[in-house]
Specification:
It is a single chain. A 10-stranded antiparallel beta barrel has the order 1-2-3-4-5-6-7-8-9-10. A hairpin with a 2-residue loop joins strand 8 and strand 9. It has one domain: Calycin beta-barrel core domain (Lipocalin). With 192 residues, the chain is an alpha+beta fold. The protein has 3 helices and 10 strands, in the order αββαββββββββα.
Length: 192
């Protein structure tokens, strides 16, 4: 399996729809359980696409520094309602240098707080992506890695002044499209 070592490789490897099983641990006394299942759809964006240009301008970053990005849409599993813009985000990759292994990740709206944010990211030698985000009143860290091309893991923490108050573990399995399913069916039919 090819391990992504820069953000655009990571976005390309993540393109498609993923089924997510999420476990959320709250360290506060009164908070509703957010564990569950959802679907995430990821589309790779090129540096010249309007969404990338708009996020750069919103953050006061020269769009010429953008290498590309991705749009994320998420919804509850099997949710038949129209997608909600509160459950969508555009991420833009601004690498630090030519190694492309660290940089800024611009986001039109954050996951923890619904405000535009600039995160720091870096890739370890093992291909694990780490993203640190400072919000107005919280700090988040997410780590993500691929077990294989169709299965990835994400863990995250959210901290405030009192320490960690949310920890999340997600296992994500790629959803196969009709073309991939037809190929698998054809292979299985030859076995009979």
């Amino acid at each position: 399996m090819d391990i992504p070592h820069n953000m655009m490789e990571f976005f390309q490897k993540s393109a498609g729809t993923w089924f997510t099983q999420r476990t959320v641990h709250h360290f506060e006394a009164v908070t509703a359980d957010q564990s569950g299942e959802s679907n995430i759809s990821i589309e790779v964006l090129t540096a010249d696409q309007p969404q990338i240009q708009e996020v750069c301008q919103q953050q006061g970053i020269d769009p010429a520094k953008a290498r590309g990005g991705a749009s994320f849409l998420w919804q509850d599993n099997q949710d038949r309602n129209e997608l909600d813009s509160d459950r969508a985000a555009v991420l833009v990759d601004i690498p630090d240098d030519g190694s492309l292994q660290s940089g800024k990740l611009l986001r039109n709206q954050g996951y923890v707080e619904k405000i535009p944010v600039i995160s720091r990211y870096w890739f370890g030698r093992d291909g694990i992506l780490t993203i640190d985000t400072d919000y107005d009143s919280n700090q988040g860290q997410e780590r993500c890695w691929f077990i294989n091309s169709d299965f990835r893991v994400r863990v995250s923490t959210v901290r405030n002044n009192n320490g960690v108050h949310i920890m999340t573990y997600c296992s994500e399995r790629r959803c196969l499209g009709e073309t991939e399913l037809a190929k698998l069916l054809a292979v299985n039919e030859t076995r009979v």
